[in-house]
User: What shape does this take?
Amino acid sequence: MQGLSTTGALSTMNVSPHGAAQHAVLSAPRAILEVRDLEKTYSAATRPVPVLRGVSFAIDNGSFCAILGPSGSGKSTLMNIVGLLDRPTAGSVCLAGETIDYDAADAAASRRNRLLGFVFQSFNLLPRLTAWENVALPLLYRGMPRGERKPLALAMLDQVGLSDRAEHRPAMLSGGQQQRVALARALVANPALVLADEPTGSLDSVTAAEVMALLRDLNRRLGVSVLMITHDRDLAGRCDRRIELLDGRIITDVTAP
Amino acid sequence: MISWPFTATHLSVGEAIAEALDNLRVQRQRSMLALLGILIGAASIVAVLTTAHMAQQETLKMFSRLGVDMLNIHAMPADADATGVLDRTAVEQLPFRDSSVLAATPLNAEHDTVTAGRVSDTVGVAAVTESLARLMTLEMREGRFIAPFDADGLVAVVGVEAAEKLSAPGAPITPGARIAIKGYVFTVIGIVGPQPFTPLDALDVNDAVMIPLGGAGRVFDTPQPTSALVRLRPETDLDAAGRRISSLLANPTATLQVIKARDVIKSMNAQKVIHGQLLTAVGAISLLVGGIGVMNVMLMGVMERRREIGLRAAVGATPGDLGLMFLIEAAVLAFVGGVAGLVCGLLAALVTARLSGWTPSLALWVLPLGPGVATVVGLAFGIYPAIRAARLSPIEALRAE
Assistant: This one.
């Protein structure tokens, strides 16, 4: 995570001109993600449907933050915008000190590759690839040759405790193992922020707890920031911070002591 | 409006091809259907080109034997009541009177019923002289050809096919056998051929009975020849030579028609070109259908693999990477079809050669053409699905079931 503090320092210059009130210049280098006045309105046939109505928050580097909210509260939309997969109607997102230009598709792809790791509820592993090939996928789009990708992927599989499953295909792995492969994939490219969308949503409670513990452990060991969507208050309670959304607005923002 | 979205790509093409092949294996059945059109298209193109190549080789072989510097002078009746004839001596004198003439032979040919024992059949009957054998480089299978001393003798040389037609069990047509034409009985003195048929020949010697020109009056309306085959020096101006020879042979009974070997080759080629064009059109239509098949398979692939596309986009694939992935897959799919088509096309050409009695031969430049054309078709029809993949919205792709 050496590189992150450098980009974090850069963000001081980028962010300060219109810095939100709650972030002093001193705290700015520590923010890995800054979301300001984010609005998203979908244009339906009859009338526009607002999904996000002015969401602002910042996440410190290395923290583990949960986003809570009932379905329709806008948390998935928020996640997609932060993940550079969707564009906001208004407002800005600053990721690792870089203000995002949502018009540049290729630049967004490159930022997703360098700065973000995704974990999905349904794992989204490619069935034809082995575990290590799945883990190495982000490195492929970095133009890294196969020979260099493999050791990095194997090392990451080791971190999630699956070094003995490297040549297995997803169908031969249990749900918990598949999600651990997905975690390794999210982390293999040294991202600044991991976006986890209900990562334990399709696992039984025991496996869910294991995966959650692993995610928490990786967050501490590797110092990677995590933004996790969940509707499980128990899980959210175990995070450093809890942001609750309702009808496109933040209703609670609690930082654990 | 579709703009080209493929930029900023950093994928290794080798790996992309390996992955595309892997994909084809997985969806084998559907790929097969798309391949069929490409296969037929490539196969027909390869078959057309190879067959045309072999036909050309055969024509060359045929004319290298006979020579392309040949003329056939035919006497057409000057008026309806008379028979148009040539003067035998004038024909035989041609080599001495025109320096461009190497050899000339007079003949008279028609179709008649020939009887041998109880068998009778219609075959060509030709009154010829000994010079025909040399001019057409005839080869005897048995016996001898007509010689000067046969004069107007009742002897006949029979072509192999005609001999077969006239043979009966226990009564084969061999030298010594007797055959009857228009009430005259001829003794067979030789069997000739098989001789490659050339369209310039006034008759197909394989399917003919040849008698001495001196006795032509017994069978034909006139004892005089009605045609002359003339061999010219190579590189002779055929038109000029044709005019000179016509004036040397001119007589009041006939209007002379000059048929040039080159014209015959040309019209043969023209016919082949037409056949080739027809097959090429079939090939082109098959390729079009195949291309649409490839497009269909790729579009289905894009739909089915939306989640994969979304995931790849999430981990950093640019729209260009995604488009290129599908484009390469389309090209690989079509290439595989093209290779299969090449094999089928060559087999078809081989069968054609076997059936036509040609020596199989292969034009090397055809080999890359089948797969090459197929790949181009794959690329062309892969563009649209590739653009679709590249323009897929990642969130919608990830949301897909």
Observations:
- Confidence is low (pLDDT under 50) at residues 1-8 of chain B.
- Chain B is about 50% helix and 20% strand.
- The radius of gyration of chain B is 33 Å.
- The interface with chain A takes residues 5, 7-8, 10-12, 15, 22-23, 26, 307-308, 310-321, 394-395, 398 of chain B (CB under 8 Å).
